[in-house]
C-alpha cells in the first residue's frame, strides 16, 4: 500500500468505527480485524501502519466526528501535516481537501464528560490526558499452574507489576498468543488494576464466591487461583456470548471449580435464588461507562451519551442491591467499576451503604486507581463486610 492508500484505508475504518459508535456495533479492534481479513493484499507493515494511524486519530478527538474524512483532516491539520500533503496525490488515496471542508476538532472527551471530571477532580485535565495515552500490556500469572518468579525469565522484556502480586508488565510490544506460557494457561492478559479488584475479594479455598458480572471471566479465573480450585465459584452474566468464552479459558487455565449461570436482565434473582444469603464473597464488577479504560478503548468516548449513562447507573444500583442480598452474615462484597465518574463509583458506594446498613466499608475504605498515579486503568473499588 502507498502512504496515501494507507490514509484512505484509515478513513474508511474511521467511518465504520463512527457508525458502530452511533449504532452500538463492534469495537474498533474487531472492525479493524474484519477489514483486513477481506484485504489480503495488505502486508503486516501496512496493517500495523493503518491500525496505528486509526488509533492516533481516535485518541486525538474527544467528540465523535462527523465522519472519517473530517476526523482525518482535523487530526492531520493539528498533529500530522505530512498526512494532509498526501490528499489528492494518489488515485488510491483520499481526494484533495477543498476550502471550507469540515474538520474535526481535537479534544480529550465530550464536553459533558469533561464537566463531570472537572467537578470531581481538581486535576481533571491531567487525568483526562493520561486516559488518552496508550495503555501498557499486563499479564497475570496463573498460580494454579506456576509462579511469577518461574514465568518471569520466560517472557522477553517482562517486569513485575508494582501493585499486583501476580502481575507482569510488558516493556515492549509482544504478541502474547504466540507465547508457550500463554498457550498452556500459565498467564492471562489482565490489566494490573483488574487484578487488584480480584485480590480485594480475599477469596479463599472452600468458600462460596459469586462473580455477578463475570463477562468473559478474567477476574473469575483470578478468583479460582485464589481459591486453589476448592469451593464454589459461580460466574454470572446476562450476555450469553461473553459468558460462553469463559469455558475454553477456564480449561486452558486449569480452573475446575467454576459454575456459569446466564442471567435474565431485570430478573437476575430468579437464577440465583439458592444463593440468597449464602455467599462468602460477592464481586460486582458492574457494567459501566468504561471511562477508566479509554487508554485501551478510546472510541468508547464516542459511544457514551447522557441517556446511556443514566441507564448504566440505574443498572449498577440494581446489581449492588442484589449483591448485598446474596451475601451471608460475615461475608464480603466488592463493588467495582472501570470508571472514574462519581455517579458510578463514589455515589453508588454511598447509596449502597445507606440502603444496606448491615454493610460496612472495610478499614481501607474505597479506592480509586488512576493511570497517571498508579499506572493502571481507571477503577473505583469499594469493599464491604456484612455484619453477623
Structure, described:
Its EC number is 2.1.1.-. This is RsmB/NOP family class I SAM-dependent RNA methyltransferase. One of its GO terms (biological process) is methylation. The mean pLDDT is 95. This protein is 41% helix and 16% strand. Helix 1 (3-23) crosses helix 4 (68-79), helix 10 packs across helix 11 (218-226) and helix 15 (306-326) packs parallel to helix 16. The protein is globular and about 75 Å long. It has helices at residues 3-23, 28-37, 44-60, 68-79, 81-84, 111-120, 124-131, 148-151, 180-183, 192-200, 218-226, 240-244, 246-253, 300-303, 306-326, 346-355, 371-374; strands at residues 137-141, 158-160, 167-170, 187-189, 208-211, 232-237, 258-262, 279-285, 327-337, 359-361, 367-369, 379-386. The strands form two sheets. Strands 5, 6, 7, 8, 9, 10, 11 and 12 form an eight-stranded mixed β-sheet that branches. The protein has 388 residues and is an alpha/beta fold. It has 17 helices and twelve strands. The termini are far apart. The chain folds into two domains: 3-107; 202-386, 3-Layer(aba) Sandwich (Rossmann fold).
